[in-house]
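ARCHIVE RECORD
Type: protein–small molecule complex
Small molecule: flavin-adenine dinucleotide
Source of inputs: curated submission
Record status: active
Notes field left blank by submitter.
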Amino acid sequence: MKKIFPSVVENTLIADNIFKLVLEDSFPHDEFKPGKFLHVKCSKGLDPLLRRPMSICDISDDERYLTVLYRKEGRGTTLLSEYQAGEKIDILAPLGNNFELPAEYENGENSTGDLQKQCLTKKVLLIGGGIGVPPLYYLGRKLKAAGHSIISILGFNAAKDVFYENEFKSLGEVFITTVDGSYGMKGFVTDALAKIESLNDAEIVDCESSSDRTAHNRTSSRLRRTNDRSVPLVHEDHEDHEDAEIVDWEPSYDVMYSCGPKAMLKALQSRISSDKLAYMSLEERMGCGVGACLACVCNYNEGFERDKNYSRVCTEGPVYKLHEISL
Ligand SMILES: Cc1cc2nc3c(=O)[nH]c(=O)nc-3n(C[C@H](O)[C@H](O)[C@H](O)COP(=O)(O)OP(=O)(O)OC[C@H]3O[C@@H](n4cnc5c(N)ncnc54)[C@H](O)[C@@H]3O)c2cc1C
Ligand code: FES
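STRUCTURE (tokenized, with ligand):
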């Protein structure tokens, strides 16, 4: 981790309140790995004092350009949106751990040693919600370059919030959901998985011949039902839907990576079996970003504790196994 002062190349609006920030400096791929984050000093003065964590959305092949996508939320990100091309930004990076790529297991490099058997797996499911989508793009680019096949499910509130659809399409099949149904499939990412599962061949043909924008929601024979248990359907932000039940599903994939709001990750925890190879990246509120203040602490679930029963997301995370942390 070091302090860097990259130049702003671009800082533009790409969707409702979503900005694309491109920085120029030296960003070696072997240090700036997918899943790691930057701690950005958004103000040019002392207010706000605390840096804001931002994921790496992409790094160019020549390692000169790093892209961040951010949502203008509060004081920090509003100040960030005011940076102009040519200005320099004060950043601590790279911070946190990173997503483990299947290829790393093949090389025997994974630290835990418990995933070696899955090393030959190649079908990857990326599930992103809202501003949790960005880190999955850089990850997806690395996975694709390593020869893995990728399906992405990206969830947003409404059509105006959708971003990076084409970029994800360049990686593989993409399914978009919106809560209000104004674009893609209506509902949540979990609903998309269930819907994809339930579509039959006739519907696929209908979708493919349609010029409607939902056509890209067509299903894939690679997604299949594996059992018929019923489980509660937990919606991301509607606790009153928790009683609803749908038939359990389990698409055919070898590894799943996710990032998004806590409620979405919680829904995935309740839907995906703990013996599946699955990861999540947590976007907790942070203070120091380097393990000193404990602002970002969360608890391990039983059976996942390490030397202590809590974890600092900024240092031990932000990437965890899906069932490792209590949300
Ligand atoms: C590892 C990590 C990676 C992240 N990557 C990105 C990214 O790539 N793009 C992006 O836009 N954001 C990302 N975030 C979230 C981002 O850091 C916050 O949105 C940002 O700090 C808000 O700062 P602000 O001063 O604009 O808003 P504040 O004034 O601090 O807050 C505005 C609103 O956002 C809420 N909020 C602030 N931080 C978070 C958070 N971490 N999670 C949920 N709600 C929050 C507050 O409760 C408040 O309602 C990431 C967070 C983490 C921990
Ligand atoms: S943000 Fe300070 S310990 Fe994690």
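CURATOR ANNOTATION: The mean pLDDT is 82.
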